[in-house]
Structure formats: structure tokens, C-alpha cells
UniProtKB/TrEMBL annotation:
Source taxonomy: Bacteria, Bacillati, Actinomycetota, Actinomycetes, Micromonosporales
Pathway, per record: Cell wall biogenesis; peptidoglycan biosynthesis
GO CC terms: cytosol
Co-factor requirement: FAD
Keywords in alphabetical order: Cell cycle, Cell division, Cell shape, Cell wall biogenesis/degradation, Cytoplasm, FAD, Flavoprotein, NADP, Oxidoreductase, Peptidoglycan synthesis
Keyword Cell cycle: yes
Protein name: UDP-N-acetylenolpyruvoylglucosamine reductase
An MF annotation (GO) of this entry: FAD binding
């Protein structure tokens, strides 16, 4: 049976996979990467497929899916192999009384995927807790241990891994804090659920539960029966602009090291695209999530071409209204945008 990216990704779209290899340990991953490169076979590395959109033509070379599973807790340090599901790591940290990543509960994908776009939610970024990570350098064939400064974090959702296939993340070491109490929480949606004031803390397990409940409400927790979750999370990235056009002066914003970060969700809504938009558009197989305006969702039977056409339609609507180009947050392979 032919395996397709529709089988391997959370948006459930994309064409056939050439050769699929599952890396079950870190040494196995290195062996697979080395042999694909030695054979000069085009190589795509993936984890949980939760931030990946591959064209309907698929990928004709080798795909290495990271499922390595080495895991260790040593004092307040947690080291996890790239192939472990990220949320398993959060669950383990919470159960161990290690604070620092409870706000990142419920995010799909693998450990190795988190530094790629410096995954973040509810005030916590991967880079806040990352002590080091190990990478396999496909150019030199060497394994190196890197500090966060080498990862190119900085501007919103960026890293050196994002637009380069040179380095493969093998494992990450997080420096957490021994405590059963969470970090301070500044999001009213979460503090209200916990019945605490903004800036307060709560037991780790309760915070994890509140975050997951909030994410569920926004359809940001995977559910195979709910098309609102057949997505890559936010399809569009919050734009960072050196200068904000006058027309967008009312858009909520935050400072970023590269300028001003605008809320893409606000821009989309104010361009006339409300949550759920799309069911009456085109062939109705793609729509914005009914609960999250940044999530482009597969309503069942969508192709990558359908998704890309819909995303371009939203992009063009926002550009016409605000003179701002929305770019994708997810990785697009063999897709035109
Ligand atoms: C419902 C939903 C909710 C989400 N919520 C959030 C959120 O709150 N915050 C957030 O930041 N993101 C969110 N995301 C996006 C996604 O979960 C993250 O980006 C996740 O870290 C991707 O990991 P992955 O293993 O699935 O990566 P994949 O989708 O498999 O790959 C994504 C990219 O990373 C590369 N990659 C994967 N593994 C490695 C590796 N080991 N070494 C080098 N490169 C690698 C791939 O080549 C590809 O370019 C959400 C997605 C979904 C579907």
C-alpha cells in the first residue's frame, strides 16, 4: 500500500512518500541520515507532521520519521530524544514536579520539532527552558552539542533550523525548576479557569489541565473526529513589520526584535474572514477553523492544491484590505504560495 503524507500529517493532505524509514533510536536516526545522504537521495526529516504541508506530488526521495525515544531526568534537567511526542514530555515533567513547560501542554508534534519554530504558547517559548540540544550536521557528518545562542532564536517563530535542512535535531535538554507550583500565568483565559489572579501561580497538574481545556475550546488539541483540528495549528504567522501601514494602525501589536509584530488573527477577521469561513467557498473542503481564525482546516477530502488555493485567497484578501502580506508559519514542501 502506498503511504502518503495524508497518512502522516495532522492536516491529512499530501501525496505519496518515496521511501519511509522510521528512526527508532538516536544511533538508528544517524545511520539512516548517513545512508540517505551517501546515496544522494533527496531527504526529508519529519516528526509528528503537525507543522508540515507537502504538495500532492509528494516526496520522491527518502523520508526519515523520527521516533527515537531515549528519555532521562537528572535533577532539574530533562533530556528527551527528538522522536518522543512533545506532550508526553510535558506530562512527565508535570508528574515529576518539574516546572517550566506546563504552559506548553497539549501541543502536537515531536520533541525535535519544537526548536524548529521555537514552539510557544501562553507566554512560554521552547527557548526559555532549552539548555542545549544535539544536532547531526549533514554537511560534516558530525554530531554536535549546541547552546541556545547557536540556534538563531530571536524573531517570532524563527530558528536556524526553519529554512535549512542541514541540521537534524537529535535530542534536547531542558533546564526546569523543581517545584509543584507553575510559573506565573499572565493569560486571563487561563487564570480565570484556575480562579487565580493574573500573574499568580497554581499547582502544575491544574495548570496543565486548564491549558488543555482552553486549547480544546480553541480546537488546538488533535481530535480525529473533529475537522476543526485537522490543521497545522496556525497556518499563518503573525507578521513582523519594520513599519506598520496606516490602515493597520488599530491592529493589536507587540514589539519584536525585527520591528512590530501584528496579530494575524485580527487582520484576517477585519478583512472579512470570520471563523468558519470557507464552507461556501470553492468546493468547501477547506475552511478556517470555527474557533481559531489562524487555523486553515481540512473538512475532509481536501487536497494540498485546495488548501493552498484557500490560503492564497485569505492572503490576498488581507493584502487588499491592509497592504500586508501574510506568510505561512508551517513548512511548505512542493507547494506554491
Ligand atoms: C492542533 C495544532 C495546534 C498547534 N499549536 C501550536 C502552538 O500552540 N504553538 C506552536 O508553536 N505550534 C503549534 N502547532 C504547530 C506544531 O505543533 C509545532 O510546530 C510542532 O513543534 C511541530 O513538530 P512536528 O514534530 O510535528 O514537526 P513536523 O511537522 O514533522 O515538521 C515540521 C518541520 O520541522 C522539521 N523537523 C521535524 N523534526 C525535526 C528534527 N528532529 N530535526 C530537524 N528538523 C525537524 C521538518 O523537516 C519540517 O520542516 C500546532 C499544530 C497543530 C496541528
Amino acid at each position: 500500500m502506498t503511504i502518503t503524507f495524508a497518512d502522516l500529517t495532522t492536516m491529512r493532505i499530501g501525496g505519496p512518500v518515496g521511501q519511509l524509514h522510521v528512526a527508532t533510536s538516536t544511533p538508528h536516526a544517524i545511520e539512516l541520515l548517513k545512508s540517505a545522504d551517501a546515496a544522494e537521495d533527496p531527504l526529508l526529516v519529519m516528526g509528528g507532521g503537525s507543522n508540515l504541508v507537502v504538495g500532492d506530488v509528494g516526496w520522491h526521495g527518502t523520508v526519515v520519521k523520527m521516533e527515537s525515544a531515549e528519555f532521562e531526568i537528572d535533577g532539574d534537567r530533562l533530556t528527551a530524544a527528538a522522536g518522543i511526542e512533545w506532550d508526553q514530555v510535558v506530562r512527565a515533567a508535570v508528574a515529576e514536579g518539574l516546572a517550566g513547560i506546563e504552559a506548553l501542554s497539549g501541543i502536537p508534534g515531536s520533541v525535535g520539532g519544537t526548536p524548529v519554530q521555537n514552539v510557544g504558547a501562553y507566554g512560554t517559548l521552547t527557548s526559555d527552558v532549552l539548555e542545549s540540544l544535539s544536532v547531526y550536521d549533514r554537511q560534516t557528518g558530525l554530531v554536535e552539542r549546541w547552546l541556545p545562542e547557536q540556534c538563531g532564536f530571536g524573531s517570532h517563530r524563527q530558528s536556524v533550523f526553519k529554512h535549512s535542512d542541514r541540521w537534524v535535531v537529535l535530542d534536547v535538554t531542558l533546564r526546569l525548576r523543581r517545584s509543584t507550583q507553575s510559573n506565573p500565568i499572565t493569560f486571563p483565559a487561563i487564570t480565570d479557569r484556575l480562579g487565580i489572579s493574573v500573574g499568580g501561580t497554581a499547582p502544575l497538574a491544574e495548570v496543565r489541565e486548564a491549558i488543555i481545556a482552553q486549547r480544546r475550546e480553541k480546537r488546538m488539541v488533535l481530535d480525529p473526529d473533529d475537522h476543526d483540528t485537522w490543521s497545522v495549528g496556525s497556518f499563518f504567522i503573525n507578521p513582523v513589520l519594520a513599519e506598520v501601514p496606516k490602515r493597520a494602525s488599530e491592529c493589536p501589536s507587540q514589539p519584536d526584535i525585527k520591528g512590530t509584530k501584528l496579530h494575524a488573527a485580527w487582520l484576517i477577521r477585519h478583512s472579512g474572514f470570520q471563523p468558519g469561513y470557507g464552507v461556501d467557498w470553492g468546493n468547501g473542503t477547506v475552511a478556517l477553523s470555527s474557533r481559531h481564525p489562524l487555523a486553515v482546516t481540512n473538512r475532509g477530502g481536501a487536497t494540498t492544491a485546495d488548501v493552498m488555493k484557500f490560503a492564497a485567497h485569505i492572503r490576498d484578501g488581507v493584502a487588499a484590505r491592509f497592504d500586508i502580506r501574510l506568510n505561512p508559519e508551517c513548512d511548505l514542501i512542493h507547494c506554491s504560495y
